[in-house]
Amino acid sequence: MGPTGAGKSSFVAKATGINEGVGHSLTSHTSEIKATRCMIGGSEVVLVDTPGFDDTKKSDLQILQMISDWLNKSYKKGTLLSGILYFHRISDNRMAGTPLKNLRVFQKLCGTKAMSQVVLVTTMWDEVDEAVGNERLEELKDNYWKLMIAQGSTTYDYRNTLESSKQLLSQLVERKRREVRLQKEIADKHLELRETDAGRELYSRLDQIAEKRAEILARITAQKNLAGDQKTADDLRKQYDSLKAELDETLQQMQALKLTSMKRATAYIRKTFKVGYHLFLFLRPFIFG
Predict the structure, then answer these.
(1) How many domains does the chain divide into?
(2) Which of 70-74, 100-104, 153-157, 272-276 has the lowest mean pLDDT?
(3) Does residue 2 sit within a domain?
(4) Is residue 62 included in any domain, yes or no?
(5) The pTM of the whole model exceeds 0.85
(6) Is 160 in the same domain as 230?
């Protein structure tokens, strides 16, 4: 997993020798979840490539739903994960905005108990000076990844070679497999996606995005009214229309994730008191009347 352009598909292609086309721009290459098999030593490994939450073809809600559906189906079949690779471009000079918010959704999806399965993989080392890359890596470890590392996550510098990909995967094949939080929330607790920790984190993130876009729209409206010539007014109108469309899409995603007061109460009781699904159905009339 990881942002668009972080090197997920490139890693899979390098490790498996199967190149189905690798993106080299900010436009998303992977728009569906893809599973590819390869051999690591004497073990068969299945690599599952997912779109990033900043996908250019699908909304964040669609991406989370796709990941949730795949995890739920695989969990019901008894398939657990040996490792979860989260890719990050070391060429990015800062961790802020969308990448940071995506990381928070990822953390909620995995849950604390699965953090030991996570490997934080840095890519694009050939695009930065080694000293600069090491400095950025230390900042990531000391700040943004500090809690995850404390909970058992490890880091790996991927050097875009077959040897580097095999070395990483060989570390994972012997690990004990386990589930992630989102699998247990949906399959075991029968929560809806919007009731899960990842769903609520995504809602919070979308709420912040909507607020910022609304503020920008207000400023554009004020500038448009004060525009002294037609060209400036037309340019501002185009900006307004584009941003308005983005805001409308964001609000639609938020509406799909919004919990009613009953849903919030239900999720809280089942999560807090660890009440099983069927037991909760039995107790619900006594709780809510």
Answers:
(1) 2
(2) 272-276
(3) no
(4) yes
(5) no
(6) no
Domain of residue 266 covers 191-279
Name which of 169, 185, 176, 170 is nearest 270 in CA terms. Answer: 185
CATH number at residue 146: 3.40.50.300
Tens of pLDDT, residues 205-224:
888 888 888 888 888 888 87
Distance CA(95)–CA(136), nearest Å, equals 10
With 90 as the cut, is the pLDDT of residue 278 above it? no
Q: Which residues contact 163 (CB under 8 A, 6 or more apart)?
A: none
30: left (phi over 0), alpha (psi -120 to 50) or beta: beta
